[in-house]
Structure formats: structure tokens, C-alpha cells
Amino acid sequence: MLIRSAELWGGLFWLALSAFVVWSGNDLGLGQLRDPGSGFMLFYLGLIMMGLSLAIITSALRHPGEPVSALWAGTRWVRVLCVVVLLLAYGFLFETVGFLVLSSILLLVLMIFVDRVDLRAAIPLALLVPFAVWYVITHALKIQLPPGVLAPWLR
After folding, report:
1. Which candidate among 23, 62, 85, 145 keeps its CA 20 to 30 Å from the CA of 133?
2. Residue where a domain terminates, one of 53, 71, 89
3. What whole-number distance in Å separates Cα of residue 75 and Cα of residue 39?
């Protein structure tokens, strides 16, 4: 059942994607080693991806694994749909609500309803992790994030 091997199909998918990345990198221009072009990194990362995907394909051809249907067995589709909806809402509300508030709410909802983390751990994590990430991004890396509703208090 070589045609039904999940590893083979996965390897073929990544091979096609890496071929596109190599083509895109070459199209952007490679430049020289001393003066790399905008496609330099894409091109060589695509080559690495190609090598890894060829290794997966070779392994799948030698030892066929589970069928593709086994990849989705036992998947909890309601949770997957909830995460997709939450991430879409996060994307739409990011500018208006702001990074800190929205990331805290997203983490809290994910940890309470999707992954079932104890509240004693979920609440501090949902508040402290986005704040730590915000601090590093805005102060250490000097990248602006939308403050949203907290704009008067974030400086």
C-alpha cells in the first residue's frame, strides 16, 4: 500500500513546497556571498527543505508506514474548529483591542477550554507570558505592537 503511505504524501507535499521556495528565492535574486540578495536565504533554506523532504520520501519508499486515514483518526474536530475561530478573531481584533489584552484572553481561553489547564497555572501564565513577550518586543527589540485599549497606560 505504497500509494496510501502518509509519510510519502507528506514528503511529496514538502518537496513541492520546498521547490516553490527555491524557485521564489532564485526569482528574487541570490546575489553574492559577500552581498546576498533578497532571495539568498530563501533559496538555501529551500534546498535544505528539499533534502529533508527527499529523506522522508526515501524512508517512506523503503518502509511504508500508516495509511493517510490514520493521521486523522481520533482528531477532536470541535477543538480544531474552536482554535481556528479564535485565531481568526485574534487577527481581526488585534489592532483595536491590542496585543496585551487580546493575547491574554486568547491564552486564557485556550488553556481553560481547549487544553484544560488548571486555573492556578492558567491565569498567571495568561497574564505574565504576553506581558513578558510584549516587554521584550517593544523595549529590547524596539518593535511596535498595537497597544489598543491600554494605549494610555503603555509607554
Report:
1. 85
2. 71
3. 38
